């Protein structure tokens, strides 16, 4: 039986519960029948004054612990009091006594060697809740391990215990961790004495790894200094083993095949969370318990929705309402798209109509100017011939030279302003769509009121090359046939023939082009190169 002695006035020591590098835990009884747990730290305090740096550090950390308990948390042990022992001047923390096994005990007989997936997720959720609560109060536990998480037999909750490291000074913490800490659960940065919120996250990942596989990723083979160094280096340099293969080996043989198969179905989010916790670089882990807790909640909710179970009526109604609203929005967008497509077709028709009217205006304007210049030419010619008759009568009977009749407008002439041109359309949406169509189209070159009329190439000599000449034959225009001022697809003009019958005179020829003269029913002619694919003899069609 353990020796009974008084820790301090009002606290009776009922025996040691466990001992470690961070101190010893005793079961104690306050005056009366209240049972508590006492954590006694190994570093003595010389005096309870501001001159003792250890006492000041201890007091500061105790104040932080009290903040943790300002708002009770079902997964964090309650801190009752703190002080200095009557003998030895050792600092102590008085906590509530949790009756039940710790996680390490639950992995030993008579319990199963591994936790079920469901129970592992429960531990993860409750331990993350405890860490989130501590980290919000700026408390870094620094000693998360399976022996410091107990199962409360009365409440069914898992409780985070033993805040011994959190109340030590940095120097004390470095020494304690290096020589006496649970090296199997230590984060890489703890080898240099650094403790972060991400440090607790790393140890959290080790605990879950142990629950699923029955062992830690880097087990300590013995208590020698060499064995401790080997584990410490593994934490810093070696990737953790595969959880799934280790779990398959550790499943108890007395479980049924059905249960074994079911227990190998580990959620992907749970595995990814564990491996992220075990990243060597603290910056790549979850930042704190709050991020862990949020990730776990998202993972469990996702699992429930995939299975279609455990959803309340309210949650199901919310999901159905969201789906209905989404379908309505999709239908509305589809209707708007159809309306926009119809508007685009109307605007395309309007643009084509305006283009045709502009081309016709260009053609008739050019023909009119040509007629005026020809009349003036004949008037001057007749006057000149009359004067010449007095000097050489015999020349009056000589045949005159053919008069050139260029039917195409001169290059420098400009089109007159038309009130019916495309630029007269003031509707802004139509204008924007037309500009977009003009940019995107690679098959139409529009002539505007400010563009000069292109001069077509002259008729090639029909006697050269032995080309057969068709004079005034009927042809069928298959497509919109544009005139080109050279047998080159990049030399297209704005003048074209619409599909239908037309009278053409053909001469020069290349692989893709024929030189053509088009004469309308009023005797007006247009010359230029046409693509062969755009027309055929009427007799062949």
From TrEMBL:
Signal peptide location: none
InterPro entries noted in UniProt: Kinase-like_dom_sf, Prot_kinase_dom
Molecular-function GO terms, alphabetical: ATP binding; protein serine/threonine kinase activity
Transmembrane portions of the chain: 375-393
Protein kinase domain sequence ranges: 11-296
PROSITE patterns: PROTEIN_KINASE_DOM
Keywords assigned by UniProt, alphabetized: ATP-binding, Kinase, Membrane, Nucleotide-binding, Serine/threonine-protein kinase, Transferase, Transmembrane, Transmembrane helix
A Pfam short name: Pkinase
UniProt protein name: Serine/threonine protein kinase
Annotated source species: Ginsengibacter hankyongi
């Amino acid at each position: 039986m353990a020796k009974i002695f008084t820790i301090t006035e009002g606290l009776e020591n009922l025996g040691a519960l466990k001992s470690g590098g961070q101190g010893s835990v005793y079961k104690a009884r306050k005056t009366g029948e209240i049972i508590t747990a006492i954590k006694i730290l190994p570093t003595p305090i010389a005096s309870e004054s501001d001159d003792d740096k250890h006492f000041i550090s201890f007091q500061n950390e105790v104040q932080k612990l009290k903040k943790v308990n300002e708002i009770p948390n079902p997964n964090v042990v309650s801190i009752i009091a703190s002080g200095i022992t009557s003998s030895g001047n050792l600092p102590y923390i008085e906590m509530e006594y949790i009756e039940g096994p710790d996680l390490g005990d639950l992995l030993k007989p008579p319990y199963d060697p591994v936790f079920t997936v469901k129970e592992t997720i429960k531990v993860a959720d409750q331990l993350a809740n405890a860490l989130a609560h501590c980290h919000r109060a700026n408390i870094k536990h620094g000693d998360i391990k399976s022996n410091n998480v107990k199962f409360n037999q009365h409440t069914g909750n898992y409780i985070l215990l033993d805040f011994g490291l959190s109340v030590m000074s940095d120097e004390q913490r470095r020494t304690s961790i290096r020589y006496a800490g649970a090296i199997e659960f230590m984060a890489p940065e703890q080898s240099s004495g650094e403790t972060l919120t991400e440090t607790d996250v790393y140890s959290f990942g080790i605990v879950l790894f142990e629950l699923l596989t029955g062992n830690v990723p880097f087990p300590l083979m013995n208590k020698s200094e060499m064995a401790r160094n080997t584990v410490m280096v593994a934490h810093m340099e070696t990737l953790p083993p595969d959880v799934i293969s280790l779990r398959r080996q550790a499943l108890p043989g007395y479980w049924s095949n059905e249960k074994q198969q079911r227990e190998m179905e580990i959620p992907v989010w749970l595995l990814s969370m564990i491996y992220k916790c075990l990243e060597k670089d603290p910056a790549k882990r979850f930042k704190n318990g709050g991020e862990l807790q949020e990730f776990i909640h998202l993972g469990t909710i996702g699992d429930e929705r995939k299975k279609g179970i455990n959803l309340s009526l309210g949650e199901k109604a919310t999901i159905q309402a969201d789906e209905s609203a989404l379908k309505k929005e999709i239908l509305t967008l589809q209707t708007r798209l159809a309306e926009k497509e119809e508007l685009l077709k109307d605007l395309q028709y309007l643009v084509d109509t305006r283009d045709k009217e502009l081309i016709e205006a260009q053609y008739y304007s050019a023909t009119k100017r040509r007629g005026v210049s020809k009349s003036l030419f004949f008037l001057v010619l007749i006057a000149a011939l009359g004067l010449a008759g007095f000097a050489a009568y015999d020349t009056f009977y000589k045949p005159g030279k053919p008069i050139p009749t260029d039917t195409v407008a001169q290059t420098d002439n400009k089109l007159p302003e038309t009130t019916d041109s495309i630029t007269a359309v003031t509707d802004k949406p139509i204008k924007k769509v037309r500009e977009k169509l003009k940019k995107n189209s690679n098959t139409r070159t529009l002539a505007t009121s400010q563009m000069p009329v292109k001069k077509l190439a002259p008729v090639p000599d029909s006697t050269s090359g032995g080309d057969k000449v068709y004079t005034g034959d009927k042809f069928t225009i298959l497509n919109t046939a544009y005139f080109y001022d050279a047998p080159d697809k990049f030399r297209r003009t704005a003048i074209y023939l619409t599909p239908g019958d037309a009278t053409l005179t053909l001469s020069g020829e290349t692989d893709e082009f024929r030189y053509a003269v088009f004469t309308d029913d009023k005797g007006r002619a247009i010359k230029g190169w046409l693509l062969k694919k755009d027309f055929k003899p009427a007799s062949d069609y």
